[in-house]
Amino acid sequence: MRLRILHTTTYHFDQPMAYGLQQLRVVPKSRTGQTVLSWQMDIDGGQVETEFTDHHQNRVSLISFDPGASSIIIHCAGEVETTDTSGVTGRHGGFAPLWFFRGATELTRAGPKLRALIRGLKEEDADDLRRLHALSARIRSALPYEIGLTQSTTTAEEALEQGGGVCQDHAHIFVAAARQLGVPARYVSGYLMMNDRVHQDASHAWAEAYVEPLGWVGFDVSNGISPDQRYVRVATGLDYRDAAPVSGLRFGSGGEAMSIDIQVQQQ
Predict the structure, then answer these.
(1) How many separate domains does the chain show?
(2) pLDDT tens digits, residue range 41-67?
(3) Which residues contact 220 (CB under 8 A, 6 or more apart)?
(4) Quick one: what percent of the chain has pLDDT higher than 70?
(5) What's the CATH code of the domain at 125?
(6) Are 145 and 225 in a shared domain?
């Protein structure tokens, strides 16, 4: 399947900015199940200072704001050819060893709610793949998809306490639970072509777990499936902070407003 992606992030500032830096992880790479045919990033109100590949093999761009900028617009456009691999992205690569993906982070630290969620799961099935699919179903049942209850700083345990959340929360809970079960797991950010709309106001997130002999396998808890040809992987990490599309800092007074417009459609 050939997917056309348009992604525009716009920041408007109440006061002109004296200085600002942002890290962008918005450039997908050709990997198992996807081939990037074209990709272009344009920035209005800033410039790319440098680009590098981080320890998760994500493509990272560091951009600076133009002095006195009152807005920043980041526009990405490209085409990606995808195939359905039933969520399997293959053997591990990169600089971070597999044991690195078993450790907890601030956003994925297990608490009483998460431990209760996985109770008995390890004893139910000796097969890791079936156990992880069962885990995904448990999370989806325990945490209905609901916008507005959580934010980017919400931890896995806090989301379970809230009783609802979005794809980021589902991914964090899955990652935290898989690690408690002794399975390496990571967070994934990317794009999803939705069947009922073209325009979206956020990118998508899911999780991957390392299962022998398959390698990394994806689990989209929010939709109850493993990623298929409608998905494009962009960045991975221990949690959202490692894979966030945009993060950074700015110096200047006043507030800001951000808007995102994403379009994903089949060519």
Answers:
(1) 2
(2) 999 999 999 999 999 999 999 999 998
(3) 167, 170, 192, 204, 206, 207, 226, 227, 231
(4) 98
(5) 3.10.620.30
(6) yes
